[in-house]
Amino acid sequence: MIIRRATIEDLDDIWQLANESFAPSPWPKEVFEHELGSPRSIYFVTTGGFLGATQILDEVEVGSLGVSPKFQHQGIGEALLMAVFALPKTKRVLLEVASTNTAAQALYHKVGFQPYYRREKYYKNGDDAIMMERKID
Fold first, then answer.
1. pLDDT band of 137, cuts 50, 70, 90
2. Alpha-carbon span 101 to 124, nearest angstrom
3. CA distances to 11, 14, 19, 38, 40 from 8, in Å
């Protein structure tokens, strides 16, 4: 599996993956376009998946991680997270996940994330958000 940093040329592929992964994407295409052009944003892509994050100093916040349903259960999400963990100067990685998304929570626990806070009724559908972190040694 080849994981690489995304560029603005990957916008259409990321948009398609976001729509397949989240059915439909909760973010408009313009958000991805803006983030791909931001110096603080970091996007990784691979066949079937993408990850978008923001890095400020030694902290990285994962804002989106999508894997197309036809590519799930092949280690793509884990590999994308490993790419984030390997970013220089990273000491802490943060993300949020819907309380009902047990598959994602299992992945995050598997790679060392721990819950630290719960935002009640955070999502439009009323689901809570579980805030998670992983500290990098």
1. confident
2. 14
3. 5, 10, 17, 10, 14
Number of domains present in the structure of the chain: 1
Question: Is the distance from CB of 116 to CB of 133 less than 8 angstroms?
Answer: yes
CATH number for position 124: 3.40.630.30
Give pTM, 2 decimals.
Answer: 0.93
Structure tokens at 127: 């689901």
Write out the two tokens for 23: 């059915």
d(CA 78, CA 13): 20
Residue 68 has pLDDT above 90, yes or no: yes
Q: Which residues contact 124 (CB under 8 A, 6 or more apart)?
A: none
Tell me the pairing of strands 114-119 and 129-135: antiparallel
Residue 77's domain comprises 4-135
